[in-house]
Specification:
Layout lengths: L1 H29 L3 H77 L4 E12 L4 E5 L12 E3 L5 E8 L4 E5 L6 E6 L5 E6 L9 E7 L9 E4 L10 E10 L5 E8 L8 E15 L6 E9 L32
Antiparallel strand pairs: 1-2, 1-12, 2-5, 3-4, 3-12, 4-5, 6-7, 6-9, 7-8, 8-11, 9-10, 10-11, 12-13
Length: about 325
Amino acid sequence: MRNLFNTRVKVILVIAALLTAGLAILSGITNVTVPDLIVQGILAPFRAAGTALTTTAEKYYGYMFRYEALAAQNEVLEEQIAQMEDVARQADSVTRENERLRALLDLKATKESYQLVDAYIIGWSSTDWENTLTINRGTSSGIQENMCAITANGEVVGLVTAAGPNWAEVTTVLDSTLEISGTIATSGYNGMVRGGYVDGHETLLQMNYLPSSAIIRNQDQVVTSGSTVYPRGLIMGYVVDAGYEDTGVAKFALLDPAADINALEQVFIITQYTTETATTGTGTGDTATDSTTATQPVQETQATLPTVPSTASAGDGSDTLPVGNVG
């Protein structure tokens, strides 16, 4: 037992001597004292851990810095995109307005007697029975009640039913309270056009009081007959179906409105127009044509309408609508 102890002591002493010699040699090579080497050896693991933490912190700092830079860059890009979208919207608006103005020029070329005031739609109101628009022009622009509103293509939008200094309310053709005298352009049949009360066809107009003998064809154009309010020849809609009224004495026709009311941005109010009225000469039996200026809501003489034929040839029967079945 004593020999074993002595052996262990000898081994420890030998190792200590070797370590001392190694440290002395390392100290001589690196010019660092033995105590410093011991301290450095003890602190080496801590230094490694500190270096790892520092490196990690620098990575996170760099990430946060880059994140802030990317966020700022993303904000700039979003602002640029918003500006480009705004420019695109303005370009679309200008394009649509140019199209409307070109159509208006065509309308004025064909309807030289019209004096028009343009207005933009700023409000809508629609129920099962009512359909109105609010526009941004009023009495200060010469707009009064009972003036007709149309599109740039000469399609009937409705009638001004209220007006203030800088606004006006237009009751559209889809409103059930508005009735307009209309004529089927191809045949001359007359009737009253009204909207808003046909079950299942709320977006359609109904033309009533047509003769039972009337031949009504699909896509027949219906225009205004001419009155104290509506100039003659304005487009109201196109026939999409027909049938007999409940009494069986007269027919009716369903019309697809020519003006897309829900997609309108701008309307034109007819403030004054000239219409030709037929007058009978005195003593000679001849007829002469006078030019009469109608300024709303001044009364005008209604233009003579084409004579309604008692019978009409169906022509090609393939385009004649079925009677009695309303889609």
